[in-house]
Design a protein that fits this description.
This protein has 180 residues and is of the alpha+beta class. The chain is 23% helix and 36% strand. The strands form 2 sheets. Strands 3, 4, 5, 6, 7, 8 and 9 form a 7-stranded mixed beta sheet that branches. A two-stranded antiparallel ribbon has the order 1-2. It is globular.
């Protein structure tokens, strides 16, 4: 839904709103700090940790057709990161999460001239890929990947099939290791 104007809260280094907001294209053009929510869908399969990645739609202006975080999106002005994460999961994948997401931490992303503070969440409830309702404008398909394979693929020179943000991936990895 990028035909309507979208506004984001301008935030400080910790991701706390300053009270001002800015329109999406301006935020990106000028590199004004704003917030995104990233959700990792994780499962254990045959003793291996796996992440569900979304393949970005071919229509996307950034990284079309590449595999990305399970679900992610900008946090709209006035919204909280958690409600935003829950909404993204529902809009992009059709998953009704309510309060089943676990918050880990945030990181700074510098995609293009972007200046983002990303709030990273984990979702570990069972997901039946066949039953997902994908938001076609955003998501072409989804696929499970072994954490270890993904780790190797993201090392330089990185496998060009992926556009997963390394910092977000590291957070998911550390989170999983902390639960062992």
């Amino acid at each position: 839904s990028h035909n309507t104007m979208e506004f984001f809260d301008i935030v400080d280094e910790k991701g706390i709103p300053t009270g001002e907001s800015i329109e999406r294209t301006q935020a990106h053009k000028k590199g004004i700090r704003h917030r995104t929510a990233h959700i990792w869908i994780i499962r254990e399969q045959d003793g291996k940790a796996q992440l569900l990645l979304q393949k970005r739609s071919a229509e996307k202006d950034s990284f079309p057709g590449r595999f990305d975080t399970s679900s992610a999106g900008h946090i709209q002005a006035g919204d909280e990161p958690e409600e935003s994460a829950i909404r993204e999961l529902y809009e992009e994948l059709g998953i009704q999460a309510s309060k089943d997401i676990q918050y880990e931490k945030e990181f700074h992303g510098k995609m293009f001239r972007d200046n983002e503070v990303a709030f990273v969440y984990m979702y570990t409830k069972p997901v039946d890929v066949a039953k997902l309702i994908l938001q076609k404008e955003e998501v072409e398909s989804v696929e499970w990947f072994d954490m270890e394979e993904l780790d190797a693929a993201l090392q330089p020179p990185r496998d060009q099939r992926f556009c997963v943000p390394m910092e977000g991936f590291q957070i998911a990895k550390q989170w999983l290791e902390s639960r062992k």
